[in-house]
Amino acid sequence: MRLEEDIKETINMINTDSIIEKYDEMIEYSRIYQNTTENIRAYMPFLDGNYQKALLPTASGDHQLEAILRGINDITCFDINRLAKYFTELKFGAIKNLSKKEYMNFMYENVLNIDVFNYLKNSLADDVLVFWEEILKNCSSELICKNFFRFLGLNNNNDVIKGIDCSKYCALKFTSYLEDNNYKIVQDRLEKVKIKYIDADLINLTQELREKYDLINLTNIYEYVNSDMFKSGDKLYSDIVFQLIAFLNENGKILITYLYRCSLNDIKKYGKKSITYAKLLCMLENVDRIRIWYDQKASQKGRETIMDKLYSFRNVQFLRYLKDIEIEYQKIEGTGFSSDGLADSDLVCIYNKK
Predict the structure, then answer these.
(1) Does residue 302 register a pLDDT over 80?
(2) Among residues 216, 220, 237, which one has the least CA distance to residue 311?
């Protein structure tokens, strides 16, 4: 039975009290984010369209909550990580039953407090209820916080510092549903929204789809599909985008990808560069003497390092294969997730089926 397996795998993950790199990969059982790390608040206005049906990643549930706030009432969620559904449903149950202050305490202060859980648990679906009862019974709250969730951190310049929790910062800064009036709107609408889940990665997703949508959001999944620029992940991802267009209603939109630390200038500079260019940069990066010299020179002149160039190049390789469709690029306020001060903007790439 999958529920029993889900519980067993989760308990094993949580009780692995060490650096658990395996569970940071995008696999069937991996750690989850408590909330988005994208600036959803900034890009959702570009996706407005009086839409009713959406296909969204399950993830932390924040994409769904932002969609619900904007009137979408039929949502299909997909995720390779089976644990995302259990957490997302717990988050929804908490919002339904708790005031905003109580919710913030349950999610970010006194995390997963057992008394609060017992108060809201009757609103959870049977499988979600059993899952969380077993997890809370078999794992300490300290280890749950440490090993079930992924944590990011920020310093005073909004740069990432490993090991410091900044989940609350992200939740408040990058979403709209936690604003007082919006929280009440979402709280009321959650009771009426139709939500279903698909356990599938993006590559196999279209095989599971049976209907069309007004909005499809692929967030930053491209980063994971194209993690190695020399394995044609960009071609694979582009093929998936074309497949998903067939599941889009007229005047619907696809957020093709969310690009951290990216600007319109990066699109112009690297969108037409060849793979040979990237291979040359990799060769230079692997020669310590050259890399150190170049990085020092780059730093002195405020230019990109070799790694920055490689990162920017990889980010936009899908453009080579999507040249036959019109893509809208929207620059938004950057999340600040960088240790080098280059994260002044992020970029979303949107297709509108006209």
Answers:
(1) no
(2) 220
Q: Which of 37, 10, 140, 12 is nearest to 346 (CA)?
A: 37
Query: Is-contact 4 14, C-beta < 8 A?
Result: no
**Would you tell me the crossing angle of helices 83-97 and 126-138 to the nearest 10 degrees?**
100
Burial of 214 (0-12, 13-18, 19+ CB in 10 A): buried
Its pTM stands at 0.92
Upper half-sphere CA count for residue 275 (Cβ side, 13 Å):
10
Q: Are 175 and 107 in contact (CB under 8 A)?
A: no
CA-closest candidate to residue 61, choices 29, 22, 93, 19: 93
Give the Cα separation of 307 and 295 in Å (integer).
Answer: 9
The pLDDT assigned to 341 comes to 45
User: 31 near 23, Cβ under 8 Å?
Assistant: yes
Q: Can you list the domains of the chain with their CATH numbers?
A: 2-263+320-352 (3.40.50.150)
pLDDT band at 339 (very low <50, low <70, confident <90, very high): very low
Angle at 33 (CA atoms; ends 27, 34), nearest 5 degrees: 145
Among 200, 137, 150, CA closest to 35: 150
Task: Return the beta strands (E) in the chain as ranges.
Answer: 32-33, 53-57, 74-79, 149-150, 194-199, 213-217, 248-259, 327-333, 345-352
Of 239, 237, 244, nearest to 222 by C-alpha is 237
Collapsing DSSP states into helix, strand and coil, what is residue 258? strand
| pLDDT at residue 160, rounded to an integer | 55
What is the rounded distance in angstroms from the CA atom of residue 38 to the CA atom of residue 56? 14
Q: Is the pLDDT of residue 198 over 90?
A: yes
Looking at the chain, how many residues does it have? Answer: 354
